[in-house]
Design a protein that fits this description.
The structure is a homodimer. The first copy, chain A, is globular. The first copy, chain A, starts with a helix and ends with a helix. Helix content of chain A is about 85%, strand content about 0%. The longest helix of chain A is centred in the N-terminal third of the chain and has 45 residues, at about 1-45. Chain A has two domains: about 1-70, Orthogonal Bundle (Arc Repressor Mutant, subunit A), CATH 1.10.10; about 85-210, Tetracycline Repressor, domain 2 (Orthogonal Bundle). Chain A is an all-alpha fold. The interface of A and B includes residues 132, 178, 183 and 184 of A. Chain A binds a DNA duplex through α1 and α3.
Amino acid sequence: MARQVTGAARRVADAAEVLRDEKFNARRIELAEAALETLGELGFARTSLREIAQNSAFTHGVFHYYFSDKLDLICCCVRHYKAKCVTRYDEVVATATSRDELTEGFLAKLAATLQTDARMHRLWYDLRAQAMFEAAFRKDVLEIDKSLEAMIWRIASRYAELGSKRPVSSPAALYALFDGLFQSALLKHLAGDKTAIRELLDEVRRLLPTVC
Amino acid sequence: MARQVTGAARRVADAAEVLRDEKFNARRIELAEAALETLGELGFARTSLREIAQNSAFTHGVFHYYFSDKLDLICCCVRHYKAKCVTRYDEVVATATSRDELTEGFLAKLAATLQTDARMHRLWYDLRAQAMFEAAFRKDVLEIDKSLEAMIWRIASRYAELGSKRPVSSPAALYALFDGLFQSALLKHLAGDKTAIRELLDEVRRLLPTVC
DNA sequence: CCAGAATCTTGACACTTGTCAAGAACGAAT
DNA sequence: ATTCGTTCTTGACAAGTGTCAAGATTCTGG
């Protein structure tokens, strides 16, 4: 009897703890999302916890309460960023029924995110560069890179499949190519080059049939 | 007579000024070179003028004397870096008499610089990312990017020529591909991946005949 | 309703940062 | 050798940084 009671008590205690953890984690993500605003604006180097707090509805102490560390916060931001990014083209891949449809769907999303999420993208490149100096970032960054490579590979595979072909290069090379083009277009776009996005689209449109 | 004298005086004055300017500039480069040591070690974000000074034979005041600004110093570093980087493969391109020779010469240099100059390379990627936030860097960074693209294009053109072919993609796409691969390999290498360099070489060896 | 825990605010700390100014050391021209 | 301009050193300042602790506030289980 006592056994069962303590068992039940433990179960509700556990459930409560899980609930608390979930709430805790949800808060962390809320804070991370707020932090991403400022990080995307100023970059990793110039962003301080106080700046993040001032541009948000939170005080700087909260961040210390939910994150052990500045790096902890940034890592959480990066991981959160990843989750949203990696599925961007999945719907297009799933619904496209022809090569053209896939191409145009992909390019449309590409142009849109380059336009809309430029600040998030530049933050990603910033953090990836930081990972070359700061070991604490490396695990997350390498993981995200792998996810992005897989994302590109899903597009290419589907594109090849729709033409009854096979991609001619490795996932790594394909990702390197698209990532390089994207990064370059992003920089030019941010530098005020109005043609950067169009040129990227043209380049990708030309490239796709030659690699798959 | 007086005319000639003042003319001569002006000439020697001008010469003196040029000399002073040259000396001034040489000193700037000396300082920039010293700064690159620390920048390559810590990255842009974590490097302060004092840190730079402490890791060098100079005091922090000298840097303020020769550079108007921290950004001015960094820009000088970047420009100096550029000059050394862009000619890395020129000798190989000039002397190779066959596709194989060019390939192996290129790959050897590639592996060597990845091994030896890893800290300089990561600084370059750091600064390129910073340029997405800091407008002051953009002009220099875009210019260097163009130079690197041209460098890759010289290699590819020569490689194609040696096989009586033509490169199948644009300079921009080719540079994006190599830059993306290099960046990825650099990150893995810095993360302790012992196979990163070898894998890059294999990938490039495989890729070269398919793009040119 | 109320004690105790969770959450948040506030203010302070030790430290680092870029910048600068006052003056010392140096070199070259007279 | 003296003087004047260049070059460099030193120390200081104000602003901003991450971190943390003490207390206020809110939430929650009993």
